[in-house]
Design a protein that fits this description.
- The protein is an all-alpha fold and about 120 residues long.
- It has one domain.
- It is built from six helices and no strands.
- Helix 1 runs antiparallel to helix 2.
- The chain is globular.
Length: about 120
């Protein structure tokens, strides 16, 4: 599995925070900060939108680095992604993503089936 696929199965190459970072796009950072602030009910400033990807070395947004329960759990268990977890199908944290994103879910299922 590509290292640009997050622990949850999302594709970091499509993430607007990552795109804004790698393209040094201040307008996109402002847009993402506003959207994420509204979605999460907290103030996120454009300068906090810096991320190179969930599973690669480099900068992360504050959320991805230290608040994402999925990433924290997978790193603690030393998993390549959540598809490798024995509790994959019943994980409430992961279901916040996979219940709304069948592409991410299918990536994890495909990975699990390849083990």
């Amino acid at each position: 599995m590509s290292n640009m696929i997050a622990f949850c199965g999302l594709d970091c190459e499509l993430c607007e925070a990552r795109l804004a970072t790698v393209n040094d796009d201040e307008v996109m950072k402002e847009k993402v900060a506003e959207l994420w602030s509204n979605l999460n009910g907290v103030l996120i400033r454009p300068e906090e939108i810096n991320c190179t990807g969930c599973r690669v070395d480099g900068v992360k947004t504050k959320f991805c680095e230290s608040l994402c329960e999925i990433r924290i759990c997978a790193r603690k268990k030393q998993l390549e992604n959540c598809g490798a977890c024995e509790k994959f199908e019943e994980c409430e944290k992961l279901s916040m993503i996979t219940n709304n994103n069948t592409v991410a879910l299918n990536r994890l299922i495909d990975y699990r089936n390849s083990l």
